[in-house]
Amino acid sequence: MKIQYDRAFRRLIWAAVICCLACGRKEPSNTIQPESQQKKKNTTVQPGQTDASKKEKKPQIADPFKYYPLTKSEQIVLKSFLSQNADWRLALPSDNQSRVLPDLLRERPGYEPYFLRADFNFDGKDDMIAAFKNRKKGNFGIAYFITEGSVYSIPQWLSKTAGIVEGGLFISKGELFISGCFYCDNIVVFQWDKEKHRFSRVENGENDD
Predict the structure, then answer these.
(1) How many domains does the chain have?
(2) Residue 145 resides in a domain
(3) Which of 27, 126, 130, 177 could form a disulfide linkage to 170, CB 3.0–4.6 angstroms apart?
(4) What letter does residue 166 receive in the DSSP assignment?
């Protein structure tokens, strides 16, 4: 009887031990721990390194020579002009800050605020006037490219401080209108002077030299 009692007692002890081991064993968990308990990512920036998340992205500027439908001769004269004026680039409609430009474009589809092609010197061939933006200072300039025979004459600056960030260029009856803002009377008018071979400002119907 004593032997049987010892065996039964041992079985009870082993059963208790196995039960304790089973209760104390940690099963793998598929649950996601709260963020406060998760291991935090090391976001410290070492000396000499920059935080990529805070790095400013430079705005992408479209290639004006792909945006504007330029002829081969226009591309040549523009590239030659820009090679001598390295701080400048052709201005694009995206440079314009006027809120009403979209309304104007709906009224006049195809209008370009910073590019004109017309016969200003009345020789039967298209001339070109374009606005430029200074890469460093951000100001606008206007230059004209007049044809003489089969080639362009030497390009000339009309202005290097044109206030057209909210305006643009227009043409009417051979005259050049430079507008400081759309739908307003802030307009300067120029006319081609055949004798002086340049644009002259028009004031009250007369050339202002």
Answers:
(1) 1
(2) yes
(3) 177
(4) B
